[in-house]
Amino acid sequence: MVAKYKVGFIGCGLMAMHHASAYHLNPQTEIVAAADTDTQNLALFCKRFSVSNSYLNYQDMLEDEDIDIIAPILPVNINAKAVIDSTKKQIKGIYCEKPIAANLIDADTMVDECNKKDIVFACGDAMRNYPQLWQALAFIKNGDLGDIVSINAYEPTNEISGGGCQTLSVVQMFAFDSKIEHVIGWMNDPLSNNDQSMGGYIKFNNGIECFLNNTDSVKKGVEVIGTEGVFFHGNWNSFSIHKKNIDGHLREVDYNLIGIEESNNQLTKEIGNLYNPGFRTTQSIDSFVSSIDTGIPLRCPGFVMRNSLEIAIALRESARHNNLPIEMPLTNRNQNLYPVKGRLENKKESLPLGEYDTRMNEQLDFH
Known about the structure:
single chain; alpha/beta; Rossmann fold; Dihydrodipicolinate Reductase, domain 2; six-stranded parallel β-sheet; about 20% strand
C-alpha cells in the first residue's frame, strides 16, 4: 500500500522516535524528512526510519519539502514557534507534544492559526485517545449512567500542567468539553510560576462539577458519577462501570472494556518484531491520521490541551487569592506556567550522563 500522507519531523529526540514508530506502523503515513539542530539525533533518527532528506534548520525543510503532516516533537520553550511557523505552509495536519506551551498567549495563537488555515491540530501523546474511554463516553451519552453530576480526578502528580494535563483533558471529555464557569485551586507554592501539584474544583457551564484530588492515595484515575451509575478508569489501566439496580445498590456491569496493559500486549503480538511505541501512542497517531483522512473529530484536539494549561493557571491564580473562585476564561492571557526542566528544555541535559544516548541507540535495534 502506497502511503497517502507524507510526514516531516521537527525534532528527532527520544519522544520523536516514539511518535515516528507510530507513524511507521500506520499504513497511510510515510516519514519523508526530518530536521534537528542536534546532528547526532538527526543522524540516528534518519538511519532508524530510512529518511533520506535531513535538515539542520526546520525552516529549510518547510520550504523545500512537499509535506502533508508536520510533527514538531520539541521542548516546550521552542514548541510554539515551530507550530506557528508550520501553519504558514500548506499542510493538512500538525501534531505536537504536551504540554502545549508555557504561555497562554502562545497556546491561543497555536490553536487560532491552525483554525484559520483549516489545519488539523493535535497535541499530546494523550490518554484521551484511548478508544475505551470513547466507548465509555458513548454509553454515558446514551444515558446508561443517568445525568452526569460530578467527576472525581485522583491525580497526585507533581506537575499538573506537564503530566497532569492528561487528567485534565479526560475530565473535560467527560464534562462533554463544556466551557468552564469558574475554578478554585490550592497548591504548596502559589507564588511560583513553576508547574507543581495542584488540587481544586472546576465548575463547568453545564453544571457538572469536578473535584481534583492531589493527595497521593490508593485511588488514582478518573471517576465519573451519574444519577444512575459510576464509571471509573483506575490507575490509567482498568475500566469499570457500576449501575444502580432495582434495589438502589450499585452492581458492576461488564461492558467489555479491555484494560490498557492487555491492549499493549495485543499490539505487541500484532506487530511482531517491530518496535511497539505503546497502545496510547499508536491510538493517538491513528486518531490524528483518521481525522485528516475522513474529517472525523479528533479525540484530543489542540484546544483541549490549551484549556488544560488555562485550568492549571487558573488553579494557581485562585491559590494566590486565598482560594477565591477564578472566572473563566481568563482575561489576562499573558500568564506563564513553566513545566519541569525535562519538558521545558532539551531532555538530553536533564537525564543522567549517558542515559539519553543509550536510549537513542537502542532504537537502532529495530532499524
